[in-house]
UniProtKB/TrEMBL annotation:
Gene: Slc25a3
Protein name: Solute carrier family 25 member 3
Self-association and partners: Interacts with PPIF; the interaction is impaired by CsA.
Membrane topology, record value: Multi-pass membrane protein
Protein function: Inorganic ion transporter that transports phosphate or copper ions across the mitochondrial inner membrane into the matrix compartment. Mediates proton-coupled symport of phosphate ions necessary for mitochondrial oxidative phosphorylation of ADP to ATP. Transports copper ions probably in the form of anionic copper(I) complexes to maintain mitochondrial matrix copper pool and to supply copper for cytochrome C oxidase complex assembly. May also play a role in regulation of the mitochondrial permeability transition pore (mPTP).
UniProt keyword DNA damage present: no
UniProt repeat feature Solcar, residue ranges: 10-94, 107-173
Residue stretches in coiled coil: none
Lineage summary: Eukaryota, Metazoa, Chordata, Craniata, Vertebrata
UniProt family annotation: Belongs to the mitochondrial carrier (TC 2.A.29) family.
One GO process term, biological-process aspect: mitochondrial phosphate ion transmembrane transport
Cellular component annotations (GO), alphabetically ordered: mitochondrial inner membrane
InterPro entries reported in the protein's UniProt record: MCP_dom_sf (IPR023395), MCP_transmembrane (IPR018108), SLC25A3/Pic2/Mir1-like (IPR044677)
Organism (species): Hemiprocne comata
Keyword Membrane found: yes
Keywords: Membrane, Mitochondrion, Mitochondrion inner membrane, Repeat, Transmembrane, Transmembrane helix, Transport
Length: 173
């Protein structure tokens, strides 16, 4: 009757795949808008509005320029979705078992919030390296045009810390 048993490895895997599809694909679909938004934040004199930002980007980089940062966006948000959706279910069951069936039902809202926050903690750790690369690709002209160029350059300049400087702001968000 069911596609898998609740709490089974297949269940967690399906939740994770749902996260990959819902986060990775949707965030990648809006890369052009995110690119212009990031550039407006970094250089408001040059990118005065959303429409102006699109126009400036297309004039300088062509239509393909609107896709800058698509690879780290897809990988990073896919990893975030995998962790967010998969670990949410793991923590929901773990915390529910710790509370017991009756308390888990009585405190279900708090249980769901705790499971969500716990999952997001790990999801943001998974996202942070790709988000750092994406922002550099999108906002620092000449730094790197692709993920393959950005990763070794970032590591060479700052070491592993380059990829996790933004994790605390992600947690605060």
């Amino acid at each position: 009757e069911y596609s898998c048993e609740y709490g089974s490895l297949k269940f967690y895997a399906l939740c994770g795949v749902g996260g990959v599809l819902s986060c990775g694909l949707t965030h990648t679909a809006v890369v052009p808008l995110d690119l212009v938004k990031c550039r407006m934040q970094v250089d408001p004199q040059k990118y005065k509005s959303i429409f102006n930002g699109f126009s400036v980007t297309v004039n300088e980089d062509g239509v393909r320029g609107l896709a800058k940062g698509w690879a780290p966006t897809f990988i990073g948000y896919s990893m975030q979705g995998l962790c967010k959706f998969g670990f949410y279910e793991v923590f929901k069951i773990l915390y529910g078992n710790m509370l017991g069936e009756e308390n888990a039902y009585l405190w279900r809202t708090s249980l769901y919030l705790a499971a969500s926050a716990s999952a997001e903690f790990f999801a943001d750790i998974a996202l942070a390296p790709m988000e750092a690369a994406k922002v550099r690709i999108q906002t620092q002209p000449g730094y790197a045009n692709t993920l393959r160029q950005a990763l070794p350059k970032m590591f060479g300049e700052e070491g592993i810390w380059a990829f996790y400087k933004g994790v605390a702001p992600l947690w605060m968000r």
